[in-house]
Amino acid sequence: MKRMNEIWRNWSIRIKILVSFLLILLFVSLFNLYLNNNNYATIDQFNHTMMNYYTIHQLQDLVTRNGNALDSYLNTLDETKKQEYETSKVKIKEMLDPIYDNYSSLEIYFCIKSIVNTTDTYFDYFDQAIQEKEVKEEKYYEKYYDGINVQKYTNEYIQKLLYLSLSEGTQLYNQLFEEAEMMRQVSLWIILGVFVFALLIGVLFSNYLVEPIKNLAMLSMRMANGDLEVQSVEVESKDEIGILADSFNIMSGNIRKYVKDLEEKVIIEKKLHEEELELIHMEQLVKEAKYEALQSQINPHFLFNTLNSISRTALFEKANKTMKLTHALSDLFRYKLRQNKNMVSIFEELKIIDDYIYLQKVRFGDRIQYIEMVDNECRDLIIPVFLFQPIVENAIMHGIEPKIEGGIVRIKVKQFKNNKNIEMIRIRITDTGVGMNKNQLLQVEDYNTDRRKSIGVANVYQRYMLASNHKGRFKIRSRRDRGTVVEFSFEKGTFDV
């Protein structure tokens, strides 16, 4: 009992209610199942009795019809009457065999046995009378009357069987009535018991749930009105009520402690809050200024190389190619100068890379190959301005230019889902240049330093991290004589304004 009480206290309220409800439902269902089975059994017994009455009446009717058919045949020698006699005879014999199974008393058994014997006897007399009539024997009627006399005994036995069946049915009815009356009384008592049990469970749960909650509500109102010195709530169970009481006790103790601490620190917290607001405002201003400064630090190295290419081309060619070079260079400057915002689409950034690659191809010729692999759904995504050009410039100047046979610059932009099913964007800028050894890669990866004159990778990294609020990822991988990979990855929509 102690063990059961411990288990009950550890159960949650939901389990307690479900167990109580299931117990009541199980008891009611079992009792209802028993009543249904008992009712079906009573109906089956009653139907069985009625079928016995019907069978006996049918047997009696067949015996009468059998005698009438024989009488008509002997008078008229009508073959249809003989056929009727034979048919009824067969039916009577078929009905007599199963009728033994319908009764259990010895008296009824002997009665049925007498019916079987007398029917066999008068059938023999009737058959002999038919044979003598058909051969025109004058004394055929003697067999006929002998059969009629025996048939009278058969009818008497059938009447007796009907009477005995009625008596047995009456006894069965009285028995069923007594059982039904008893079941009615038992049902009333069980229904009353289930009602009382359910009411008791309801009252117990009501008191069990309501009283502690009322107590908690009263103490909570006192605390809400400023009275923090409230007593603890004691609940023995470990269900939701017990957890709620323990949580309330811990909460009330913590509130008293916190209120005391807050009273001592309110002045300090106020001053710290004012200083914190001022600091946040200053950091925001610094961040904006830093972002603008970093964005403006675009490496002018490619400008001088391009101007040299233009001047050399002007010596040996007509002005058409010079015009194209000048047009591409002007597009680069126009792209930078027209930017009154810090973000552009990937499509715009790729367009300016096309112009830049055109300018560099004039210088390097077929030594440079450029490949774009960009998902269509990524072309309109927003990224920081001049994110690609400094990386591509480093790839050409430091990776491909020192390599005699030249190399390939590839920009690949892909959309994918990470293991948390979040839409991500990955940008890879790769080259097949000379690459870097570990020491060179460590020097390049020192892009976290905050240097005012930092350009190239450091400039791109700091602008990228500031724009993504330090949520984006930036990686550089390189192998000597194999090339370099620069990878940006961020959640889709990170730079949307």
- Taking all Cα atoms into account, the compactness measure Rg is 55 Å
CATH topology type of the largest domain: de novo design (two linked rop proteins)
Strands ordered across the widest β-sheet: 2-4-5-7-6
The end-to-end distance, rounded to whole angstroms, is 68 Å
Beta content comes to: 5-15%
Shape descriptor: elongated
Find the structural class using helix and strand composition: alpha+beta
Q: How many strands, what sense, and barrel or not for the largest sheet?
A: 5 strands, mixed
H and E string: HHHHHHHHEHEEHEEHHEE
**The CATH top-level class label of the largest domain:** Mainly Alpha
Q: What's the β-strand tally?
A: 7
Unreliable stretches, pLDDT < 50, 5 or more residues?
Answer: 296-301
How would you explain this protein's 3D organization?
The chain has 12 helices and 7 strands. It is an alpha+beta fold and 497 residues long. It has 2 domains: 2-203, Up-down Bundle (de novo design (two linked rop proteins)), CATH 1.20.1440; 297-491, Histidine kinase-like ATPase, C-terminal domain (Heat Shock Protein 90), CATH 3.30.565.10. It has a 5-stranded mixed β-sheet with strand order 2-4-5-7-6, covered by helices on one side. It has a two-stranded antiparallel sheet with strand order 1-3. Residues 296-301 have low confidence and may be disordered.
